[in-house]
Amino acid sequence: MKNYIGLDVSQTSCAICILREDGSRVFEGECSTDPDEIIETISLHAKCVERIVHESGPLSIWLSRELKSREAPVVCIDARAAHKALSARMNKSDRSDAEALAQLARTGWYREVHIKSENSDRLRLLLSARERLVRIRMDIEGQARGILKTFGIRLGTVRKGRSRRDFRDQLGEIVSGDPILEVVFASLIKVHETVCHKTTDLDAEIQRYAKHSALARRLTSVPGVGPIVALSFIATIDDATRFRRAVDVGAYLGLTPRRYQSGETDWSGRISKRGDRSMRKLLYEAANILIQRVAKFSPLKGWAMRLVQRKGLKKATVATARKMAVILTRLWRDGTVFAWTKEALPV
Predict the structure, then answer these.
(1) Which of 189, 241, 334, 342 is the one with CA 20 to 30 A from 58?
(2) pTM given for the model
(3) How remote is the C-alpha of 281 from its chain's centroid?
(4) pLDDT tens figures, 281-290
(5) DSSP strand E in the chain: where?
């Protein structure tokens, strides 16, 4: 008889529940959150394992990869969807959650989460580290400007060249002569310099990665899309073929309107904002660049400008970001580049 297993995973321990095909319980217990021990515990109590289900969480990617490498039929399901079933129980515990997950595995009432490749996670790590350093740099500059305004000092415009050295030169010149300000800003200047140099190093690595990636070069053919947007899209989507239709990527990135329909009530609201927030922000910025900065005409540019006239800049930018995500997915699938004219569109 087939067996279905639910795993409720925490940092140190893992609750396990094994159910037969008819819903009867075979085993209920705990083990440490170690793939080998999980497999050993399951093999002691179940021979014919049809499906192993666990929720998405901090350890879900690692655990899914490790269990799959041991040829276990593991499925990671959406925690938000699973919460609806788990919250229906009167009492909550790790064991009851594991039993509920085993019931979901038995009935098939779940939505599977795509586990991204290790290469995508490494690329995402590179991009997120660069984003974090940029945020630290901006926080330091904002804090320095805010503190100096208390003393009536306003810093001028900072040029981007030489790792924003102009900011540090202005700051050092302004605070010189004041012992307290010199002590406070000496550490900020040092940290700012280190962060800027490390950000420059990561920018160079990202440029190198994009240059050697044929897919990234094709995606950057879209106006408004640079190396960071292209690589972030690759890391976020991971596999474009997992979408049945290219337009489905808009909903995956939270760029489609919410809808509520019940009886005579039917309305559409703002975009869902589900999925990767950073990717959604990058696509919005790329769409804004296309609308306001790209001078060269294209069918995409014309479509966006007509939408600006009808709906306004903000709504048009969101719609253009969604359309750009669809175009990037199609370029990925078809192995083509962006068509700047209608005549260049593939037949």
Answers:
(1) 241
(2) 0.88
(3) 10
(4) 999 999 999 9
(5) 3-9, 13-20, 25-32, 49-55, 74-77, 257-262, 265-271
